[in-house]
Design goal:
- This protein has 70 residues and is mainly α.
- It is 57% helix and 0% strand.
- It has helices spanning 6-19, 24-31, 35-42, 50-59.
- The chain is globular.
């Protein structure tokens, strides 16, 4: 999936979390990140902390790839 915005990224995080059967609460307890952070991320809040967002994506088994457009 191509990501064009924080909203796209958040939607993919939510989709993956749900596919794995995790609640926001369970993910919060496992990662130590607040439920509000996870919620903000999933809702596309543009001011999220990028490092935490990347770590969460990786913990959910998502790889991010950046490439130049042709």
């Amino acid at each position: 999936m191509k990501i064009y915005s924080a909203k796209d990224f958040g939607a993919e995080i939510r989709r993956r979390r749900k596919a794995l059967g995790y609640t926001q609460k369970a993910l919060s307890e496992f990662t130590g990140y607040s439920i509000s952070f996870i919620s903000d991320l999933e809702n596309g809040k543009a001011t999220i902390e990028f490092e935490k967002a990347l770590k969460l994506a990786n913990l959910l088994g998502l790889d991010l790839d950046v490439s130049a457009r042709a």
